[in-house]
Amino acid sequence: MGSSSFFLWLLLVFSAISSNVLTVYAFKGTYGVNYGKIADNLPSPSSVVTLLKAAKIKNTRIYDADHEVLKAFKGSGIEIVIGLGNEFLKEMSVGEDRAIDWIKENVQPFLPGTKIVGIAVGNEILGGGDHELWEVLLPSVKNVYGALARLGLTKVVEVSSPHSEAVFTNSFPPSACVFKDDVLVYMKPLLQFFSKIGSPFYINAYPFLAYKSDPEHIDINYALFKSNQGILDSKTNLHYDNMFEAQIDAAYAALEKAGFPKMEVIVSETGWASRGDADEAGASLENARTYNRNLRKRLMKKKGTPYRPKFVAKAYIFALFNENLKPGPTSERNFGLFKPDGSIAYDIGFTGLKDSSASSLIPFKVIGGSSCTLLLTTCITLLLLISAS
User: Has 269 been annotated as catalytic?
Assistant: First the structure.
């Protein structure tokens, strides 16, 4: 290496070290899961940690900053993105002081034992029905980031905000995707800020919802990663054999047209319902198993998409459990990979914490001491009775 090259290298290193902005990799690997809690029959957070570790799931997202969850995750090594709910945005948009108070209460006390790697500011705001929240999203994001900076946490905790497909005018073919005009007014400055601080674009992408809305024109096999003819995007001449990759590349196309061709896309939610109402096409146990099994295989390959082959596809699956208190159609309460007792809802390669055929075991509880002795004695007695008969 020549002296001039070495000097340039040294300058780049020094610039990176001295810069206040450093990309935080809040998602290591390619597979994560959303841990929703709108239910009255879920196991304790500590049992959830046991389940995630047994399934070797190292990335998770929650939709709040539940202290019981954050305490339970301490020392687990599982990386967690917490949510700053939509109901806080107006308050957060006023100034950094409130954001500092929130972080001091919900983030700082749990670090570094609990690996909080991100804060999702709001959920599916742009494209939603509350336009007042559109106005306060960017100020809230800036204040949360500013608060993290003042507390010295910007190199530990990423700031993001996940979006729904409602931010796009259209997404088919992928190359035709653009942001809605009214959304773009708010989206572009948000993307400019995220680009500045190194945050990716998070999108909730559901082939299930697309198929449910138009089952007559969408091939179910295309939505489920099964063998099919696929589609050809005539503009890019790229072939897609599954909708998941097409939805990701649609987001990349929209970002490129908005002026952000280098921003990474990460899927913050995707999944398939195992049950649904009569008018919810495709909602079935078999389809949920097929989609999630094939998606897991796809993510394990650590490959990019046709339009962005160098950006490895990453996704958080929705959801860890069925949530029996969620409002809306039946499908909303039936996205879980696991049952509340720790058994698998269907087989996609996870074992769960107990045999799914068992029916009366105490969920997640290890029996010990005198209880263990009593259980053993009972079993021996029953065996002796059966032998005698």
Answer: yes
Strands (E), the chain: 31-34, 59-61, 79-84, 115-121, 158-160, 168-170, 178-179, 201-204, 231-233, 238-240, 265-270, 315-318
Q: Both ends of the chain: CA-CA distance in Å?
A: 87
Contact 126, 167 (CB under 8 A): yes
Query: Residue 281 and residue 279: Cα distance in Å, rounded?
Result: 6
Angle at alpha carbon of residue 223, lines to 314 and 315, rounded to 5°: 10
Helix H or strand E segment including 214: none
87 noted as active-site residue: no
List Cα–Cα distances, 281 to 212, 277, 278, 330, in angstroms. 5, 8, 7, 12
What percent of the chain is predicted at pLDDT more than 90?
80
In this predicted model, what pLDDT tens digit does every residue of 365-382 receive, in sequence order?
333 443 343 444 444 444
Rounded CA gap, 141 and 106, in Å?
16
User: Which of the residues 165, 269, 280, 323 is marked catalytic?
Assistant: 269
Give how far Cα 107 sits from Cα of 73, 142, 384, Å: 13, 17, 57
Residue with tokens 């195992």: 274
CA distance 85 to 132: 15
Active-site option among 124, 264, 280, 323: 124
Instruction: Give this prediction's pTM.
Output: 0.85
Neighbours of 11 (CB within 10 A): 10
